[in-house]
Each structure stands twice: as C-alpha cells, then as structure tokens.
Design a protein that fits this description.
The chain folds into 2 domains: 113 residues, Rossmann fold (3-Layer(aba) Sandwich), CATH 3.40.50.10170; 125 residues, Hypothetical Protein Tm841, Chain: A,domain 3, CATH 3.30.1180. Helix 3 packs across helix 4 and helix 5 runs antiparallel to helix 6. The protein has a 6-stranded mixed β-sheet with strand order 10-9-8-13-11-12, with helices on both faces. A 4-stranded parallel β-sheet has the order 2-1-6-7, sandwiched between helices. It is α/β, with parallel strands linked by helices. One of its GO terms (molecular function) is lipid binding.
C-alpha cells in the first residue's frame, strides 16, 4: 500500500526536506489589505517580517475545502491512502477542511490527524509519518505512532511583543499595556488545542531559561529526545541558544526552525519557542 503524507505550511518543513521525504504541503495565506500571499510559496518568513515593519498586521486564511479536494484528487492517482497532518483545530479550521475534503473524495481513504499544536513541533509528526510511509508501513501503524508521540510532545513559546497577541484578539488592551510596562514575557503553550498562558515571567532571559528547565526535567530520564528551537526572525539568537543547549543536554538532538508568516502574524517578531518529543 502506498500512503501519501500531507501537511500544511505551518509545520514549516523546508522545501528540501519536503522533497526528500515526499511530503505534500498545502499552504495557509496571509492577507495584506487586498493582497493575499500563500506562505512558504509566495511569501517567505524573511520577507514577511520585513513587510510587517511597513504595513498593518495582516489577516490569515486557511486553505479552502476545494484546495484540499484538488490535492487529494491528484494524489489518488498514485496513492492508496493519505495521512493529512495539520495545525491544532483549536486555532484554525484547516484540520476540519481536510476532514470535509476526505469525505468528499472517492477512491482513496484519507486519515486526518489533528496535531493539537503547530510550527516545527507539528512537523515532528509529519516527518515521522513520511519516514514510516517510505518504509511501507500501513496507515493504521502510522496513525498509532502519531498518537503515541502525542504523549511526549511538548512545546513552549515566549512572546516578545504583546501587541501582536492583543491585536489578534488573544490579549486585552489593558493586559498588553500592563504587560509592556512590567516587561512581562508570557510563556505560552497548547492546552486542549488552544494557545494559553503557561506562566508570566519578567524578562526574556528568565523566560528562555524556564523553557530550558522544562526540557531538562523531561530529559533527566536519560532517554533520547529530539528538539527544535523555533524563532521569529532571530536566527543568530537561535544558533547561539542551540550551542548552549547542546552542551547542557547531550541526550537531546537540536534543530532550528522558524515561525513563518501565518504563525508569526499572531506571535510577532522576536518570539522564541522550544519543542521536543521522545525519540
């Protein structure tokens, strides 16, 4: 049985890796005024962060059900099944779009998977699914593995600029003003599919240290972990952090990823995240 693996652009898997692992990507979009751009195709993370310096914060848009139907109809020519892995259904209707399209396309079985998270941590599921599909594993085996991974996946994000959350309706104006005055750097995480505050910490340095402490607690078991540092236009800071973490936690393999246009719209430039999963 040949199984195709589909994800959306918010998993921020590089084009090189997508091509290597035969991962099919459907993009979300950012909309500046009347101009819509498909992220990872028509707008890069770098160009997005440059654009928002000169323009109002864009809106974001999920793929249409029709986009999914078109992709699934194409894939059924070469595949017997599709595993479609998407960002949390609590913050986007993308997963539901895959569910709806899967029910509409005949001749192929679609297995939608709600990652309940986003960014490169969502990508952990995608890469594992693609590797297993390449090894000829069945859709049922792959879905079982993804659900097993969900038990050990963790991710925490530090937001540098509260105004993005406030403008996106995730933080009241009063909280944003108060947070800015106090230099609060809220740590966020996903809980019940939603982005919610985990802790409020006074400084960026302390917030990042707190994230490391949380990873160290899990890694203290001595088991092998895979982790990804995720940055919003802060590559040099991410590289420096990676070097520090590799020295501290030898049983953790670290990579670097980024918050692209869609997630960056909600978190803002300067945000940093760290996600991990048991190998």
């Amino acid at each position: 049985m040949k199984t195709a693996v589909v994800t959306d652009s918010t998993s921020y898997i590089t084009q090189e890796l997508r091509e290597k692992l035969n991962i099919h990507m459907i993009p979300l979009s950012v909309i500046f005024g009347n101009e819509s751009y498909k992220e990872e195709i028509e707008i890069t993370a770098e160009s997005f962060y440059e654009e928002v310096k000169h323009k109002d914060l864009p809106k974001t848009s999920q793929p249409s059900v029709g986009d999914f139907v078109t992709l699934f109809e194409t894939l059924k020519q070469d595949y017997d099944a599709i595993i479609s892995i998407h960002l949390s259904s609590g913050i986007s209707g993308t997963y539901q779009g895959a569910v709806s399209a899967g029910n509409m396309v005949e001749g192929i079985t679609v297995y939608p998977f709600d990652s309940e998270i986003s960014a490169r941590v969502q990508g952990f599921y995608v890469v594992k699914a693609a590797e297993m599909a390449a090894d000829g594993k069945s859709p049922a085996e792959i879905m079982d593995k993804l659900n097993e991974m969900k038990q050990s996946i963790r991710a925490y994000f530090m937001v540098d600029d509260l105004s993005h959350l406030q403008r996106g309706g995730r933080l009241s104006s009063a909280q944003a003003i108060l947070g800015s005055l106090l230099q609060v750097k809220p740590l966020l995480h996903f809980e019940n599919k939603l982005i919610v505050p985990f802790e409020k910490i006074r400084t960026r340095k302390k917030a990042m240290k707190r994230i490391v402490d949380l990873l160290a607690e899990d890694a203290a078991s001595g088991e092998a972990y895979e982790a990804s540092i995720i940055h919003a236009n802060r590559l040099e800071e991410a590289q420096k952090w990676k070097e520090e973490l590799e020295a501290q936690l030898p049983n953790v393999t670290f990579g670097i990823s980024y918050f692209g246009a869609v997630i960056g719209t909600h978190l803002g430039e300067g945000s940093m995240g760290l996600g991990w999963v048991k190998k």
